[in-house]
Amino acid sequence: MAYVVPPVGDSLRDLARRHLNVEPVIVTSELDLGMPIRYDPPAAVGADRLVNAFAARALYGAPQNVPCVVVDYGTATTLDAVSADGAYLGGALMPGIGISLDALFSHAALLSRVELKAPPAAIGANTADALRSGILLGFAAQTDGMVTRFVRELGPGTRIIATGGISPLIAPHAATIEILDPTLTLTGLRLIYERVRS
User: Fold this and answer.
1) Rounded distance, CA 197 to CA 184, Å?
2) What residues are paired with 136 via a beta bridge?
3) Would you say 145 and 129 are in contact if contact means Cβ atoms under 8 Å apart?
4) What is the CB-side half-sphere exposure of residue 176 using CA atoms within 13 A?
5) pLDDT in tens, 113-147
6) Distance from C-alpha of 158 to C-alpha of 57, rounded to nearest angstrom
7) Which pLDDT tens digit goes with each residue over 40-56?
8) Catalytically active residues, by annotation
9) Which of 76, 80, 106, 114 has the fewest CB atoms within 10 Å around its CB?
10) Which domains does the chain have, with CATH numbers?
């Protein structure tokens, strides 16, 4: 189990113990993941970020001993870096797409929500397409800019993995995304559970 909202996580842990008679595995920086955490302090890293980094390393980095960057499009857009030797290094936190859109639509009276689909061109010829361009292509460009900086620090051969519910909409427009794995977090939870239980 991985969570970043303690009251919710505590309730889920109690539910698992009381109603399912199961002692859940809780992902924290103190759990032995076989992955050194070089974040200061380690306890400040969100469990979801650790799970993503663990899964990226196991699936895409370890076989070739290459660094990885995970771009997770969730409530926040996070980028997390794993070194070639498998250490969690840290990353970047940005407002997520949903939060950004909520702010835009609540402060711009003349704009309304649009269906998120690829715009016909970067230059929107109407408000709906201008919004689609700004949202999909703009967040993809943000991703490319940040990933390029990460790769400069990590070195060539870095694997770039996109995950999160909205990743299938953004990843096709981001030139730096190499692997689209929308269920990376769930896979990571399974892999961590298997490691701990073995």
Assistant:
1) 20
2) none
3) no
4) 25
5) 788 889 999 999 999 999 999 999 999 999 999 99
6) 11
7) 999 999 999 999 999 99
8) 48
9) 106
10) 48-183 (3.30.420.40)
